[in-house]
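From the shared-data thread, chain only:
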Amino acid sequence: MLPNADLLEDRLRSNGLDETLVQGLVKWFKNINGQSRSEPAAALGHAYFWSITDRQSMQDVWEYQVQHHVTRAFKYNDQASDGLRQAWVDIASDDAPRLPPHEDPGDY
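Structure, as tokens:
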């Protein structure tokens, strides 16, 4: 299965992840996979993020898996690597603004 941002978004919401983190992670996911057009090694599947339920589990996924992927995929492109790393920090920061929970129109 190819990386699927919609599937990831649904999973993160069903995991109860804060809406700000959901939106930030999905944006980051689209960014890195968008870069895979010119850097095929950058492609990253949604399964990496499947178990994220909160900020700590998000940080664990970064520390034990995703940061290593970014390092390998962009070993010759420091600008892209640094941009992805900074974007992750911006999402994961405790100071990031919070959004209200996602409401599914089907809930009404």
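The mean pLDDT is 89.
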